[in-house]
Design brief:
This protein has nine helices and twelve strands. It is α+β, with helices and mostly antiparallel strands and 307 residues long. It has two domains: 197 residues, no CATH class; 87 residues. The chain is elongated.
Length: 307
Amino acid sequence: MSCAECIAFDAAERAAIEGRELPTHGPTCACPDDDLDVLYVRAERFRRRPQSGAPCRVSWEQLAAYLAAPTVAASKDAAGAWSPARYRNNERLRANLMRASALVVDVDEGGDVERVASALGRYRCIVHSTFSTTRSAPRCRVVLALSSPLSADDYTRVHAVVRAHLQVAGIIADEAAKDASRLSFSPVVRHGGVFDFRTTNGIALDVDAVLLMAPLRPSSAKRQPLSSTAYARAALDHAALTVARAKPGTRHATLVREAFSVARLTISEHEIEQTLLPAFIVAAGEAARDEGVRTIRDAVRARRSRP
């Protein structure tokens, strides 16, 4: 890294160090803009309120090297914890969260590291087993690269779409671990315990595309009847989520069905394409973009040509 205050990691060396800490940076740090904001919280600060930590600025490769080298200890909090976000006053509170630099998903069912990494192979991510994992009941944590940082509310919406995507593959993520300000324990393994680690070298998750299909949180106010325009928008959002969740082998048929269905509403062909196409790409990959465009247009025109 270009910043002298940001210490480069060596995975082999870090594996031998107990109580590891992420490198901190000062106000004059000259780290590249595409590095990640991370708040590192030492174990002794867990019970303090507010919970404060050390701000870090690390590259994706540095974070991967850090997470690849677990501390050997009897308790899961022995090596401290971290949050991939920047906070005002370095205090870990949701209200203080300025931006989240990566998405963290905990997998409690179907959490075999190799299997989860394979399911997310199209994306750039880090996958490692957690303290409670065993050979018979593997659990893991996924750190997913983002195309751009997220606010706390948008993080929650994107997290929901990612969990749904994983569920299609039989991978059940912990819904309680969806808060952008949640701390993740630094990797710790018991003596003689199980630890597995994988990285994938795909693309960063396109957060703009995902947010198009992620439903907004319902208002706590008394719900009013939907106008025809609001109904159409809700139906289109639901169609996008259905397309994003489609299983391999059914994605084309699902896109046809959903595009044909929403074409009955007062929505322009352009708006249908702009909403359903990103959802189809999330499910099928960028290589399927042209197929998605043709499918949507054909389905919409087929529906609207009916008497």
